Amino acid sequence: MAHLKMLDSMTYAEFKATLAEPAPPSSVHELLVALWYDANDDWEQAHEVAQSNEGSKNYDQLHAYLHRKEGDNWNARYWYTRAKSSVFVGSLADEWEMLVKQFLTL
After folding, report:
1. Distance, CA of 80 to CA of 23 (rounded, Å)
2. From CA 49, how far away is CA 25, in angstroms rounded?
3. Strands (E), the chain
4. Which residue from 49, 71, 72 is spatially nearest to 99, judged by alpha carbons?
5. I need a labelling partner for 97 at 20 to 30 A (CA). Which of 19, 52, 62, 69 fits?
C-alpha cells in the first residue's frame, strides 16, 4: 500500500465515524488504515502495516501500541524504545486516539 498523503483534511470525529464503514477510507495515510483495522478487531492487518516500515518512528509507535494491546509488554517496550518514545501512560483507547490525531497530520 502506498504511503498516501491525505487528499482532504479529516477530523478525528470524521475518522472515527468511518469505523462503521465496511472498509477503511482510501484517502488517508496507511497508518490510519492500520488503526482503522485495529479498531475493527483486525489486529493482524494492523500489525502488517506496522511491520511494513520498521525503523520509521510513526510505524514503530504503532507497533508498540499494537503489542501493548496484545498484552506483550516486553515487546511493546522494545518498540517504544525503537520509536524513541516513552511507554504510553494511559488507557489503550487514549493511546489509539493520540495516534489517530498524530497520524491525521501526516
Report:
1. 29
2. 15
3. none
4. 49
5. 52
